[in-house]
Amino acid sequence: MIPDAILNQLELPGATYEPVPGGDINRSYCLHTAHTTYFLKINRHHPHTRLFEKEAAGLRELAGAGMLRVPAPLKWGVAGPDQYLLLEWLHACAPVQHSWEALGLSLAKMHGKPQPFFGLAEDNYLALWPQDNTPADTWPEFYSNRRIIPLARSLTDAGKLNKADLANAGNFCKRLPELFPDEPPALVHGDLWNGNLLFLPDGSPALFDPAVYYGHREMDIGMTSLFGGFDTGFYKAYHQSYPLQPGWEQRLPYTQLYPLLLHAWLFGGHYIRDVRNILASFS
């Protein structure tokens, strides 16, 4: 049920709704009015304050790049113990010929526009993890200090990783300058798995649930392959527009370490083993 306090703030008289399945983080609903349809997300306000305000800002950042379609954030706020985000409803359809190629081309164009630094003007979230986006001059500095070490320490403090794992994470970070090719910062979606992608009725792609920042573009590529589901046409079109540097396939585990650390923090289980498998080669 949508709390009355939220319905009152939305000011959509006569709206009907039903829950939307899927997702582990938020309660989601499809709202219908006489004239249009909306997507509504709800979560507790504490401890993840400003969660949806940050998501709305990420959507605006992606929209401002002008390369990829995203749902327009329409209203967000706090009502009682809950926070909410009202979004434009995007009608999902099956991809058509060249849909995946269009996604690859658009993402490559977005990545091809250099950004001023690694980081972002404000912090945000990856799922429920607070992302520290304090700017850094280099990718190794940013990836180490803003991504890998904070999560590895949190997992160690929680007893999910041990001191040897944390030491291996430190060794990994020391080697980052030699592991990643030197490239300018790029705007990345930040959580680009197939569950955050849909295709519109005209076959064009749209993305949602971002965790944006200016980072190494291979972070988005690694995320696309972490859980599968991306057609080969996507990679072919991306490479043709903005070729990845040699060895990108061997670097996939390094880009995937951050989301795997997050999943270990959220869910534990086999994600802890996946993290340890990557870190083991840096013992």
TrEMBL record:
Any Pfam family matching the protein: Fructosamin_kin
Entry keywords, A to Z: Kinase, Transferase
Claim: Kinase is one of the keywords in the record: yes
Any one GO molecular function term: kinase activity
Domain of life: Bacteria
SUPFAM superfamilies: Protein kinase-like (PK-like)
Transferase among keywords: yes
Similarity-based family: Belongs to the fructosamine kinase family.
Protein name (record): Fructosamine kinase family protein
Organism for this UniProt entry: Niabella pedocola
